[in-house]
């Protein structure tokens, strides 16, 4: 049962254009979402996150949008650069009744982003 | 210079042998995690530990074992019971019950 899905295995974008990576989830208990970037043979590095009380979070060239009703989030990279070429994973976490994080992340399958010069 | 260390980077073992993967962190994080990544798949949680001397099974714990005797160390043993052990293994840590996890560089295990 894939609770977090990234339906596009790959995305190819020209340098300077916008990259949009999508992620869908099914578990309504998820209320915190993260995006990680991963290069081959390396560990993922944290990019940006969003809590379910927000619908948008920006950090430089990276913006994450959350649509709770559609259980959908997206990562926008503007402008895209060749160094952004990597695998991008979305991840989700839920809160327990006490309002603290479970601390467990559920990851999507990843999307390979290629930015052409 | 704080971070997470996994050793070795590449590991080869014969089928039927147990093997232990090392994970050490000096971030003073309470929680540590082990994930497995296979081609075309996301990261799947094997085991996690929120505090010393306590750990929980993740989604794919069968064939694996862990220990958490020290805050900074969380070794993973891949036993001969694991049917498909060849994979890329990632260790992570976080502040207690905090969402953002920090990852090590990974160990690629190949069972021949």
Provide an overview of this structure.
The complex is a heterodimer of chains A (117) and B (112). Chain A is 0% helix and 54% strand. In chain A, a hairpin with a 2-residue loop joins β6 and β7 (62-67). Chain A is globular, with a radius of gyration of 14 Å. With 117 residues, chain A is mainly beta. In chain A, the strands form 2 sheets. In chain A, strands 2, 4, 5, 9, 10 and 11 form a 6-stranded mixed sheet that branches. Chain A has a 5-stranded antiparallel sheet with strand order 1-3-8-7-6, with no helix packed on it. The model of chain A has no long low-confidence stretch (mean pLDDT 92). Helix content of chain B is 0%, strand content 50%. In chain B, strands 2, 4, 5, 6, 9, 10 and 11 form a 7-stranded mixed sheet that branches. A 4-stranded antiparallel sheet of chain B has the order 1-3-8-7, with no helix packed on it. At the A-B interface, β4, β5, β9 and β10 of A face β5, β9 and β10 of B.
Summarize the structure.
The complex is a heterodimer of chains A (117) and B (112). Chain A has strands spanning 4-5, 10-14, 19-25, 30-38, 45-51, 56-59, 62-67, 72-77, 86-94, 106-107, 111-116.
């Amino acid at each position: 049962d894939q609770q977090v899905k990234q339906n596009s295995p790959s995305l190819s974008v020209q340098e300077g254009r916008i990259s949009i990576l999508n992620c869908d989830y099914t578990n309504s208990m998820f209320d915190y979402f993260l995006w990680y970037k991963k290069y081959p043979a390396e560990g993922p590095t944290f990019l940006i996150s969003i809590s379910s009380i927000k619908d948008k979070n920006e950090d430089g060239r990276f913006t994450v949008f959350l649509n709770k009703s559609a259980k959908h989030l997206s990562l926008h990279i503007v402008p895209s650069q060749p160094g952004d070429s990597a695998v991008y994973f979305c991840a989700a976490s839920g809160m327990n009744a006490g309002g603290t994080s479970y601390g467990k992340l559920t990851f999507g399958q990843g999307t390979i982003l290629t930015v052409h010069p | 210079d704080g971070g997470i260390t996994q050793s070795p980077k590449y590991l080869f073992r014969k089928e039927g042998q147990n093997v232990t993967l090392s994970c050490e962190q000096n971030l003073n994080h309470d929680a540590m995690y082990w994930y497995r990544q296979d081609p075309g798949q996301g990261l799947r949680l094997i085991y996690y530990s929120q505090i010393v001397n306590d750990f929980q099974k993740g989604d794919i714990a069968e064939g694996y074992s862990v220990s958490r005797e020290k805050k900074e160390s969380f070794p993973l043993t891949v036993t001969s019971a694991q049917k498909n052990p060849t994979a890329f293994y990632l260790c992570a840590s976080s502040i207690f019950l905090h969402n953002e996890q920090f990852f090590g560089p990974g160990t690629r295990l190949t069972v021949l």
